[in-house]
Amino acid sequence: MSKSIQEITHQIVEFAEARGWKNENPSHLLNAIFIEMAELGEHYQWKNDFNKFKDMSEEDRTSLGFEFVDVIFYLFRLAHNSGIDIEEYFDKKLPKLNEKFKIGTDYGKAHKDYRATGKNKLY
After folding, report:
1. 85-115 tens-digit pLDDT
2. Which end of the chain has the least Cβ crowding within 10 Å, N or C?
3. CB under 8 Å to 66, separation ≥6 — which residues?
């Protein structure tokens, strides 16, 4: 059963509100995201490719999956509390990314041009 970003956000908001977590400081939520990202990063530390994840145990896969959820949990709360609808802005941003990163583009040259000019042609 798949859920939309809005449905997941709604579940997260209800969960937080039921526990009285209504007026978080944005810096606290950002710090929580950073901490959870570090915990997620530990699973990937010293791994050179994704092949090591294909045969992981169910226990390890669950642990990794839970770290992704922890990151999303705080990220979606931060977006919600900031009045940002992630689905809306995803739909607005993807066409810009398609324009910037055209299929067949030499991304090395594009990156070099960006570094030389300092201009982000996306916006």
Report:
1. 999 999 999 998 888 778 887 777 777 777 7
2. N
3. none
Count of beta carbons in the 10 Å neighbourhood of residue 9:
21
Do 90 and 79 share a structural domain? no
Q: What pLDDT digit, counting tens, does each position of 5-18 carry?
A: 999 999 999 999 99
Cα separation, 107 vs 116, in Å, equals 14
Q: What does the alpha-carbon distance between residue 66 and residue 81 come to, in Å, rounded to a whole number?
A: 22
Whether residues 60 and 2 fall in one domain: yes
Tell me the CA distances in angstroms from 36 to 18, 41, 71, 79, one per residue in order.
22, 8, 5, 16
The answer to whether residues 92 and 79 belong to one domain is: no
| 6 vs 118: CA distance, rounded Å | 35
